[in-house]
TrEMBL record:
Domain FAD-dependent oxidoreductase 2 FAD-binding: 6-399
Classification via PANTHER family: ANAEROBIC GLYCEROL-3-PHOSPHATE DEHYDROGENASE SUBUNIT B, FUMARATE REDUCTASE
SUPFAM superfamilies xrefs: FAD/NAD(P)-binding domain (SSF51905)
Designated name of the protein: Glycerol-3-phosphate dehydrogenase subunit GlpB
GO cellular component: glycerol-3-phosphate dehydrogenase (FAD) complex
MF-aspect GO terms: glycerol-3-phosphate dehydrogenase (quinone) activity
Superkingdom of the organism of origin: Archaea
Organism: Halarchaeum salinum
UniProt keywords, alphabetically: Flavoprotein, FMN, Oxidoreductase
Length: 416
């Protein structure tokens, strides 16, 4: 039996899932193909739009969008698409996230003691805003080396936060191994066997000096984080918040679960298999993506396609000694022929390679080396699109939301 859909999305990150939801909203039948689980579980869970422009911290990202270069993904889709992408995110995340009340950036402390600008942030981190002038205690666990609370507090003070902050380290109930996964801590607090939440709160109370806010590494439950924070807050008589961590990330895992629920409710079929090739009509339209399954190559036919496989980190853009390329649909990726021109000598300099990606027109259709449209019914979304340095700008999630929403909406509309 032939596998046929109106829209086929390749890629399971935020851009791909957003594109699938947007396409489904048009009434199209949608299938999402991804070779692995979403990369959200490796992300901090913070949703940035634009944190920096010209190396300056931005209070309001929307003030700077019109000044970005013409090849930037935001310039391609426009400001309305950014707002539409955020609105769709708010629908997916619901009460899990805060920040939708304003277009301005919030400032969140990270596990390293830096302050990060972000447009949306987990509800579990809301009491930890760096703009809040209430004093704070950061608490780390002896067996969780990824969060050094005293060092993070030192860095926050050096950054000039408007409150007094100090750090303390306690032992976690049950004494997990030093190499225990963060889910070990989360599941123990979720299950709350032997009243582990209260036992933890009492240990923290010994080092708590009445600070009105107490921050923990983001391990306070995977399934019941609000209940865990509530118990700790009651015992400590303080607002409790989570500090976003590096990978693996429980806030990211929680958000991934919200997206998966949204995809199911929207009727999107999800296939976890790699794409091994594609078919065309012999001219400039895609007809199928070839999905590998148990050694077989199965055509998945569709009227419209969205490429959302990620950038260099997500392997949506790859490279070898012959150059830089997009491995799924063989879309053109412009880059200097000399590999030494891909980077600059300064470690934190303005490197060209973070901006590598496919070149798109204003409808997000990839273009070839001569500027022609690669495939009339293919659109690209997320970090596979070139023109932005997501890490330097703090713009990655926002670009994924804006381009994902625009690409999915357009792809779905094309099939109606």
């Amino acid at each position: 039996m032939a596998i046929e859909d109106d829209v086929l999305v390749v890629g399971g990150g935020v851009a791909g899932m957003t594109a699938a939801l947007a396409a489904a909203d048009t009434g199209a039948s949608v299938r999402l193909v991804t070779k692995s689980q979403s990369t959200l579980r490796h992300a901090s869970g913070l949703i940035d739009v634009l944190g920096y422009a010209d190396d300056k911290l931005l209070a309001d990202p929307f003030d700077a969008l019109d000044d970005l270069p013409a090849d930037h993904p935001y310039s391609k889709v426009g400001v309305k698409a950014v707002r539409d992408g955020l609105a769709r995110f708010d629908d997916v995340a619901g009460d899990l996230y805060r920040g939708g009340h304003t277009e301005k950036n919030a400032l969140l402390p990270t596990h390293g003691g830096a302050v990060k600008p972000t447009a949306r942030y987990p509800a579990s981190a809301a009491a930890g805003l760096a703009s809040d002038e209430r004093d704070a205690l950061l608490v780390g666990f002896e067996t969780l080396s990824d969060f050094d609370a005293p060092l993070a507090a030192d860095h926050l003070r050096a950054a000039g936060v408007p409150f007094d902050v100090r750090g303390a380290t306690v032992s976690f109930p049950g004494e997990p191994r030093a190499d225990a996964k963060i889910t070990r801590y989360a599941h123990a607090l979720d299950e709350d066997t032997d009243d582990e939440r209260e036992r933890l709160a009492k240990r923290v109370a010994r080092v708590h000096d009445g600070e009105p806010r107490v921050g923990f590494p983001a391990v306070l439950g995977e399934d019941h984080p609000a209940d865990v924070r509530g118990t700790l807050a009651d015992v400590l008589d303080a607002a409790v918040f989570e500090v976003p961590m590096g990978p693996p990330s429980l806030p990211g895992t929680r958000l991934e679960a919200a997206y998966e629920r949204a995809l199911r409710e929207a009727g999107v079929n999800v296939v976890r298999r790699p794409v091994a090739g594609y078919e065309t009509d012999g001219e400039n339209r895609l007809t199928a993506a070839i999905v590998e399954r148990n050694g077989q190559h199965i055509p998945h036919y569709a009227d419209a396609f969205v490429l959302a496989t990620g950038g260099l980190v997500g392997e949506g853009i790859d490279s070898d000694r012959d150059g830089v390329y997009e491995p799924v649909f063989d879309c053109h990726v412009p880059h200097p022929a000399d590999r030494y021109d891909w980077f600059v000598d300064e470690t934190f300099g303005d490197h060209p390679y973070p901006r590598f990606g496919v070149v798109v027109d204003d409808e997000l259709r990839p273009r070839d080396a001569d500027g022609r449209i690669e495939f009339e019914n293919l659109r690209a979304a997320g970090s596979v699109v070139g023109g932005a340095d997501f890490a330097a700008e703090c713009s990655g999630m926002g670009v994924s939301l804006a381009t994902g929403d625009a690409a999915g909406s357009a792809a779905g509309a094309d099939t109606q």
